[in-house]
Amino acid sequence: MSDILRLLLIGTLIAALMLLGWWLLVASEGVYLGRWMVILLYDRFAKRYDNIKHYHREYEEMYIAKPVMDAIAPQTNPLVLDVATGTGRVPLALARYEGFEGHIIGADLSRKMLHQAAENIYPYECATFIWCPAETLPFPDNTFDVITCLEALEFMTNPAAVVTEMVRVLRPGGLLLTSQRVNTKLMPGKTWTSSQLQDVLKSSGIVEAKAQIWQVDYRKVWGRKAGTSSVVGVQSLDKIFRCPKCDEFMRLANDQWLCKKCNQKVSIGNDGVIELYPLY
C-alpha cells in the first residue's frame, strides 16, 4: 500500500470517527449512549445552554406562556408541573407573563441545569425546582392543573412511561402541553410519528390532542386529560410532595424535607433546589 493511500485511509477513518462523535454527542445529545451520558452532557453545558439554544424571552412568553394561559382562562393561579424543565424555560416564561398568579414546579435529572434554572428565575418566587426522574414523579394522582414537557421526550429512556406518569399526576380536564420532534433524520428510533404520539397520548388518557406548528424541529402538541374536575390552584408543597420510598407526604423541618414514616431526609441546595434524586 502506498503512503498516499495509507494517509487517505487514515484521514477517512479520522473523519468518520469525528462525524460519529458529533452525531452521538452533539446532534443526538448523547441519547444513544444512555441516560448517564445525557445527564453528563446537560451538566457540562448548563451555563451555556440558553445561549446555545438562542432562547428569546419575549418569544417564550408569546408562544408558550400566553397560549397556556389562554387555554386555561379564566383561571390565573394554576399549579403547573414542567417536566424536564432544564434551565427553567417554561417557569420563567410563565413567571414573566402578566396576570400569572400560579406556581410552577420544575423537575429535571440534570442538577446543574436546575442550578441554572434557579438563577434564571430570580427574582420571581413562583417556582420550585426538584431534582428527580420523570418516570416516577413524587406527587399524588390528579395534582396539577397544567403539565408541560417540551423538547424532551425523545431524550427519555422510556418516553411512553413518562407520558403515562405525567397524565397520572394531571387532574381530569387538566391541560397537557408537550412536543413532537419532526426533524427526525438524526435520531432514528428515538422519535414518534404523529400517529404513534396520538396513540401514546390516547392510551394514557389524553383526549382532544392537537398538533400545532411551532419550530423547525418541533410541533407543540396540546391535549386534556379525560374527565372533569375542579381547578387545583396554588398549593403548599407539603400538601403534594411525597416520599419516593414509601409514598408518605414529606414535611419541611430545619431546612430539609423529612418523611416521618420511613425517616428519609431530602436536602435543599444552597440554590433552593430540592435534591430528591439520591432517594431513587
The description of the largest β-sheet is:
7 strands, mixed
CATH topology of the largest domain: Rossmann fold
Helix content: 25-40%
Q: If helices are DSSP runs of H or I spanning 4 or more residues, what is the number of helices? A: 8
In spatial order, strands of the major sheet run: 3-2-1-4-5-7-6
Strand content: 15-25%
In total, the number of domains comes to: 2
Question: What is the straight-line distance between the termini?
Answer: 56 Å
Number of strands: 11
CATH architecture of the largest domain: 3-Layer(aba) Sandwich
CATH class of the largest domain: Alpha Beta
Low-confidence stretches: none
Structural class: alpha/beta
User: Roughly what is the average pLDDT, rounded to an integer?
Assistant: 93
Can you tell me the overall shape? globular
